[in-house]
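Annotated sample (chain length 71).
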Amino acid sequence: MDWELQNLPVAVDPDALPYTENKMGYEELARYIESGKPVFVDFYAPLCGPCRQMMPMVDSLKTAYQVKLIS
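Output written by the structure step:
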């Protein structure tokens, strides 16, 4: 984000495909939210520093609540 805030050039491969692994559509997410149960949503990007820093905590939640978490 700092790169873009400094208006530095960004090259995008015209053949790049969107990331689809572990992707959840709006309808599926809405069903979880409407279920009345607590919902933890993890927005993750491989190049995001804070996302990478949070991964150990997210992984520990998956271990502690493996029956209740869907990834």
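Annotation: DSSP finds three helices and no strands in the chain.
Annotation: The longest helix spans residues 49-64.
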